[in-house]
Amino acid sequence: MMSQAIKKTIHPEEQIKKYFSICNRYIRLKIVILFFKWLFVFIVISGIISLLFLFSSKENFSQTNLSINQVLTGITLFFFLIVTPFIIFFNNFYIRISNEFVFTNKRIIVKRGWIETKIKTIYYDRITDISVDQSLLDRLIKTGTLSISTAGSDGYEAIIRHINQPYEVKNILFEVRDKNKKN
Asked: Which domain range does residue 79 map to?
């Protein structure tokens, strides 16, 4: 599902060689980790509130007409009706749609953002170095970071994080770059 911003950037004479975004396995893992992180936070908050109810005088809370069960139910509903859907939306939709990458027969197009977008173009003849970085977790879920350095720039011009099969993507990039140099 290529965004309109990318479609507008591609010239009609250009051919798309590879279109990709952030790896689905990474997104699913991130959702699970964030879910348990926020679940832990809400368990701690619930424990603190329970201790406050337990050790405070009952007269203070009888004035508010709240019971501990009502407070804990409110926290639970907040977690499952607000936080959980936000975690899923943000990671499953926003992260994917706000990070798009295209290799054409002439250049690389990197799009960041959804509402406010930033598009970077790198022509193949300017590429001087392509490197792949993988942490232990990246190796386990078969993702990695592809870094592209260009002539005349300090550091890396584009860093593409959490992509599926980064070494294969690097090989595709080399093939497209070499074909472009021959033409």
From this structure: 27-95
* Maximum Cα interatomic distance, the chain, rounded to a whole number of Å: 84
| Predicted model pTM | 0.76
Q: Where on the phi/psi map is residue 160: left (φ > 0), alpha (ψ -120 to 50), or beta?
A: beta
Query: Distance between CA 50 and CA 95 in Å, rounded?
Result: 36
pLDDT tens sequence across 110-122:
999 988 999 999 9
DSSP state of 35: H
The Cα–Cα gap between 132 and 134 comes to 7
pLDDT tens for each residue of 76-85:
898 889 988 9
Last residue of a domain, one of 61, 95, 129: 95
Look at the chain and report how many structural domains it folds into.
2
Pairing mode, if any, of strands 16-21 and 99-104?
antiparallel
Q: How far is CA 19 from CA 10, 82, 134, 173, in A?
A: 12, 33, 21, 12
